[in-house]
């Protein structure tokens, strides 16, 4: 569909709310967990908004509100309404806009809602329609930049003109995705085009640790997106694996192909969805796995150093509580670690009371602490830890281009050593993805170098780039928690069935197998210009 091309400087807003939320995690996310960015600080998040960008002469960027947080449990209803109301109010106060770069995640859960992004997007669409465009014709366009672990229901997709998502997991292309969303929007506005969207969901729901683009079949599936969008009449192709740790009907894989040629977009979306479905049983964990006990034993016995272990079930960057002491107990249950024959560091157990006690005691003091198991007490509860405080670090804000929220916000940290194990306790939920996360600033930092330890047991799933490069060897421990990799163990009951892998043999009939699910895409008509 075409509309009148814009021959003046565009006014494009930027805003969104981003978090992924495990409905199996007892943690509750509040406004205090979100980093809220406005004004020039919001524009400074991106490179393509700068004065030296090739887009500068043709676009006036209008910063609204961007709120993002470390993944966690569902967002409390009032906190969500506070953020939603501010974003909607800022849109209405911004005046006429040609469009919006909608910077979101796609896997936010809110207490009392079943499709939080759809609810938010309907409100955003209504606000944009109320302010209209600067020339008074047509509706402002929305271009969404999303995480590939987001969910795309039809209700969410309907009010959005353009959708795109990351193509790498780990998400080394996150900023590239946001820029693609912005440039696609500018292109459509300048050309006067409003493309068709071919949308289809796939009844497959897999964890990110089985769908990393480091391995096939995800490598080829995601590599094919660039080939699809090079076809004449196609603007963008996107594939979402969905978010496995929310128990909501929308949670499943999805494909959206966007373009002027509705027929071609639908054909390509259908073929991509079928390829994903056909490959469902080929997805495997991104690394070798085992129970916590098995992983600790294999790491101790190995001569590869440092040997990394992922405590995957309590990964705070996927939505885990981050306070389980389950892996702590397994590490200290091994004689070699308990007696100091093997050294290990285990960072990131959230326990503000324990951290405060360490600061009161001071470096060099012996402390007995009740560690972890307070937010999520279901897997062993707190662990009684006696050891020596060896390092302390006060909160220091990080002003970099991290994902925001608790990723940027500093936290008080304390390191306690017992036998060969050094445990890093944190005041609030925090990931340990980089050497800087362990070391801290030169002055007043923890100064813990994970490369000097035999074993590094991190609350994470697949290894982020710095940890991946650091590891001489690695195991993915299938530990319990709010983001348990064993999905059937969690007890989903609200997802739409049949759904693989919960229904392993769904759609299979006869020795040769059935035809599979209906993966005919729905072509969403362009929003009226």
Automatic annotation (TrEMBL):
<protein>
    <submittedName>
        <fullName>M81 family metallopeptidase</fullName>
    </submittedName>
</protein>
<dbReference type="InterPro" id="IPR009197">
    <property type="entry name" value="MlrC"/>
</dbReference>
<dbReference type="Pfam" id="PF07171">
    <property type="entry name" value="MlrC_C"/>
</dbReference>
<feature type="domain" description="Microcystin LR degradation protein MlrC C-terminal">
    <location>
        <begin position="309"/>
        <end position="494"/>
    </location>
</feature>
<dbReference type="InterPro" id="IPR015995">
    <property type="entry name" value="MlrC_N"/>
</dbReference>
<dbReference type="Pfam" id="PF07364">
    <property type="entry name" value="DUF1485"/>
</dbReference>
<dbReference type="InterPro" id="IPR010799">
    <property type="entry name" value="MlrC_C"/>
</dbReference>
<feature type="domain" description="Microcystin LR degradation protein MlrC N-terminal">
    <location>
        <begin position="11"/>
        <end position="299"/>
    </location>
</feature>
């Amino acid at each position: 569909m075409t509309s009148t091309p814009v021959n003046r400087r565009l006014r494009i807003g930027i805003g969104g709310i981003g978090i992924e939320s495990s409905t199996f995690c007892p943690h509750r996310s509040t406004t205090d967990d979100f980093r809220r960015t406005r004004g020039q600080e919001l524009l400074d998040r991106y490179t393509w908004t700068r004065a030296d960008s090739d887009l500068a002469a043709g676009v006036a960027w209008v910063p609204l509100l961007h709120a993002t947080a470390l993944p966690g449990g569902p967002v409390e209803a009032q906190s969500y309404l506070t953020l939603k109301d501010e974003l909607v109010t800022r849109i209405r106060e911004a005046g006429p806009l040609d469009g919006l770069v909608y910077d979101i995640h796609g896997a936010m859960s809110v207490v009392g809602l079943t499709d939080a992004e759809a609810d938010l997007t309907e409100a955003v669409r209504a606000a944009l329609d109320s302010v209209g465009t600067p020339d008074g014709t047509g509706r402002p366009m929305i271009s969404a930049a999303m995480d590939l672990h987001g969910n795309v229901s039809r209700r969410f997709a309907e009010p959005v003109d353009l959708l795109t998502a990351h193509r790498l997991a780990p998400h080394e292309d996150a900023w590239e995705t946001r820029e693609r969303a912005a440039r696609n929007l500018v292109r459509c506005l300048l050309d006067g085009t409003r493309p068709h969207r071919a949308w289809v969901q796939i009844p497959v729901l897999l964890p990110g640790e089985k769908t990393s683009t480091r391995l096939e079949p995800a490598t080829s599936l995601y590599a094919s997106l660039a080939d699809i969008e090079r076809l004449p009449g196609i603007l963008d192709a996107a594939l979402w694996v969905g978010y496995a740790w929310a128990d909501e009907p929308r949670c499943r894989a999805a494909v959206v192909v966007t373009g002027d040629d509705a027929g071609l977009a639908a054909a390509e979306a259908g073929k991509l969805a079928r390829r994903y479905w056909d490959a469902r049983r080929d997805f495997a964990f991104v690394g070798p796995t085992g129970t916590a006990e098995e992983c600790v034993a294999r790491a101790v016995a190995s001569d590869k150093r440092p040997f990394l272990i992922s405590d995957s079930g309590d990964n705070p960057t996927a939505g885990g509580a981050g306070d389980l002491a389950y892996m702590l107990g397994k590490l200290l249950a091994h004689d070699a670690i308990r007696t100091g024959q093997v050294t290990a560091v285990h960072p990131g157990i959230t326990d503000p009371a324990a951290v405060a006690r360490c600061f009161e005691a001071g470096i060099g003091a012996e402390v007995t602490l009740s560690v972890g198991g307070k937010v999520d007490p279901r897997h062993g509860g707190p662990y009684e830890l006696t050891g020596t405080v060896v390092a302390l670090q006060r909160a220091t804000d990080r002003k970099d281009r991290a994902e925001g929220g608790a990723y940027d916000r500093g936290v008080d940290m304390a390191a306690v050593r017992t036998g060969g194990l050094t445990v890093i306790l944190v005041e609030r939920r925090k990931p340990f993805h980089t050497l800087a996360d362990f070391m801290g600033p030169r002055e007043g930092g923890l100064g813990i170098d994970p490369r000097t330890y035999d074993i590094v047991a991190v609350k994470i799933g697949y290894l982020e780039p710095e940890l991946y490069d650091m590891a001489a060897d690695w195991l993915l421990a299938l530990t319990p928690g709010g983001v348990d990799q064993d999905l059937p163990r969690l007890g989903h009951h609200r997802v739409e069935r049949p759904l693989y892998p919960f229904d392993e043999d769904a759609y299979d009939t006869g020795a040769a197998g059935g035809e599979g699910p209906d993966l005919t895409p729905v072509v969403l008509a362009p929003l009226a210009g």
